[in-house]
Amino acid sequence: MKISRIFLVAMVLAAFIGCSPNQNLESLKFSGTLELTEHSLGAKVAGRLVTLLTDEGQEVKTGQLLATLDRFDQARKDYERLEQLFKVGGTTEQALEYAELNFDDQRIVSPIDGIVLVKVHEVGETVAAGSAVMVVGDRTKLWVRIFVPEGVINKVYINQSAVLHFDGLQETFKGHVSFIATQAEFTPRNVQTTEERVTQTFAVKVTLDEPPVTLRPGIAADVELNLQ
Which position has the higher pLDDT, 133 or 19? Predict the structure, then answer.
């Protein structure tokens, strides 16, 4: 009888281990929201905004003039005048470079091809040096932030392949893990269930390999990390 009981317990344990959800796991699945890399743009010097040449939602190109300060016109005239003088030997290269720097300080240009996400200030407002006047998003760098429980974070690594699916789209997109947080944190409160919100997790960024221009930040995404 004793041997039979031992055998029965062993069979139950074997069945439990065989049904473990982590055995032969091929992928990890998480949910997140599509985001893009943002650039906060401002002037190098303090001044009053005279022109804002873009609006929220507008596409911009690299080097495009987005805004100017109150001394923009005078700085441009000074630079153009010294540029002509320099060509005939009427001024030094140092003076020309200084005028060019003053001219650059009075304007804000886009460093990327992107889209204007937010206008922080309006025409007529005085802005501090280095403060954001607008935020431009880079559509070539789209990614989804997910939160991986500490129990499985060791299965995630940089450049790990991923498959992403977005609400409202039939097709899937390829991506890879581009960032893993070095410290654990509690899952943010916007996660659906209470149980998940109190879990210690690591923030992980999954970047799309070839993001299409049709995708918009903010849409929900399902991310599947390949464990093979």
Answer: 133
Tally the domains of the chain.
Answer: 2
User: Is residue 191 predicted with pLDDT exceeding 80?
Assistant: no
Long-range contacts of 94-99 (CB under 8 A, 24+ apart): 99/75
Q: Residue 211 and residue 75: Cα distance in Å, rounded?
A: 40
The alpha carbon dihedral of 95, 96, 97, 99 has a sign of positive
Domain that holds residue 179: 25-37+138-226
Q: What is the pLDDT of residues 111-122, one digit of tens each?
A: 999 999 999 999
For tokens 């992403």, name the residue. 164
**Interatomic CA distance for residues 162 and 159, integer angstroms:** 9
Alpha helices in 32-112 (DSSP H): 72-87, 93-105
Is 9 part of any domain? no
Residues 153, 180 contacting (CB under 8 angstroms): yes
Residue 188 has pLDDT above 90, yes or no: no
Name, in order, each residue with C-beta under 8 angstroms of 222's C-beta and a sequence gap of 6 or more.
Answer: 29, 30, 31, 164, 165, 166
pLDDT digits (tens, 9 = 90+) for 36-83: 989 999 999 999 999 999 999 899 999 999 999 999 999 999 999 999
Structure tokens, 118: 């937010």
CATH number at residue 87: 2.40.50.100
Cα(199)–Cα(174) distance, rounded to whole angstroms?
28
